[in-house]
Amino acid sequence: MNEALLRSLTPSVLAILVRRGADFAAAEDAVQDALVEAVRVWPADPPRDPKGWLITVAWNRFLDATRADAARRRREDLVDDEPAPGPARALDDTLQLYFLCAHPSLTPSSAVALTLRAVGGLTTRQIAQAYLVPEATMAQRISRAKRTVSGVRFDQPGDVATVLRVLYLVFNEGYSGDVDLAAEAIRLTRQLAAAIDHPEVAGLLALMLLHHARRATRTAPDGSLVPLAEQDRGRWDIKSIAEGVEILQAALARDRLGEFQAQAAIAALHADALTAEETDWVQIVEWYDELARLTDSPVVRLNRAVAVGEADGPRAGLAALAAVDDSLPRHAAVAAYLHERDGDLATAARLYAEAAQKAPNLAERDHLTRQAARLNARRRR
Amino acid sequence: MAKYLLLKHYRGAPASVNDVPMDQWTPEEISAHVQYMHDFAARLEETGEFVDSQALAPEGTFVRYDGEGRPPVTDGPFAETKDVIAGWMVIDVDSYERAIELAGELSAAPGAGGKPIHEWLEVRTLLAEPPTITDCLFK
């Protein structure tokens, strides 16, 4: 059975139940039940109309649950009101679901969990495993999130920016377990891009595809990080890069620049260089200037300092870094890199060791410690 | 989204405000304390923030490798060890501020006289997986 097909039907089936009058929380539970049933039944008895099958089973589950409730009267009203099955308004409905699951009243972790379940069709167990929390905790997080958005009107227009942030978080965080969250984020962003014509949605999709293309080369077989300059570019996924670049170019041509398009443009310039030495750092600095104009983020200024160091030399990079708040994560790592390029190995080694102490994850800490050790060994010779 | 460890010490943390050894409390005060800890964990499960909670026996054994073909050497427990961990709770929260807030609540667990212990808890960040894109703009 094609699990991808099954999961791709999730949002439209859920939306149809909500359109028929089911409240969001109950409808979402019913769709999950139907998905579980499909996994059980379909291999032996594949339906001719998978979507119709899911709608029928989910609707019946919803009615059963409602029947068990005290809201018997409401159910009868619903049955009477049940509309004739017509052409599904899948695209609009899917978009509404994205808005609901990324509603600003939700915390980022709740929005991520709800999006993965209600739009992505993942089970609570899969989501719990991806974020390394007990299943009971994840179940509570999701049901609280559903309660939080239960009063939101389903046809209310939402903010695309909040949806994009949630998808970005799905792509960027979480653990590689049973579910490939990066691939899932790409699938959900692709589905969103099909539902709404928006240059920043395209920008995010391009950004994901361009980073995903390098995934196999980002870590060595022992799990250690491989910096961009040392990655085996021959193993980058050319198809994914080509698709990302094409989507990005079409988005940029519309002249409505946003932060995701700008980030994707930087990723595209890296992807474009056959060797690290051929990287067009001057253009990358220009894109960081655009990004700084769009977001005024200190993280952008930090990364810009690296690009300036490559384009105009380490002294220029250090001068750019001097204007950046030194309490930022990775500030010491950037300073260490620029000092090494400038030939000040003692300072670089000290800063790499300091950066390792502050590293937010184990792979980065090990990488930075190794850099400090490499410089210390060289200085002893 | 990040995980934090709330660490409780038998020894090694600064003295609590309500610093009376547990065996000097009344049985009711002990029950109230235990109930508070249960309720706290249950509440975190309810908010979708609970990951794990464990308590440790105070005495540990030190072990080290002693060379090829030899059994490991053991030593201790050492009465003089400065830092002794009593237990921990792991939480998964949206911000550091939330972790601090929850540690503050946990520290308010009742002790002698039914009054909050004001115990010092140590908050430590669990190292995460490396992100795909390091220039994340939303942190």
Automatic annotation (TrEMBL), chain A:
One of its GO terms (biological process) is DNA-templated transcription initiation. It holds the Pfam family Sigma70_r2. Belongs to the sigma-70 factor family. ECF subfamily. This is RNA polymerase sigma factor. Keywords: Sigma factor, Transcription, Transcription regulation. One of its GO terms (molecular function) is sigma factor activity. Residues 6-69 form the RNA polymerase sigma-70 region domain. Residues 98-148 form the RNA polymerase sigma factor 70 region 4 type domain. It comes from Planotetraspora thailandica. Residues 161-251 form the DUF6596 domain. The keyword Transcription applies. The keyword Transcription regulation applies.
UniProtKB/TrEMBL annotation, chain B:
InterPro entries: Dimeric_a/b-barrel (IPR011008), YCII (IPR005545). Pfam families: YCII (PF03795). Residues 17-107 form the YCII-related domain. Belongs to the YciI family. This is YCII-related domain-containing protein. It comes from Planotetraspora thailandica.
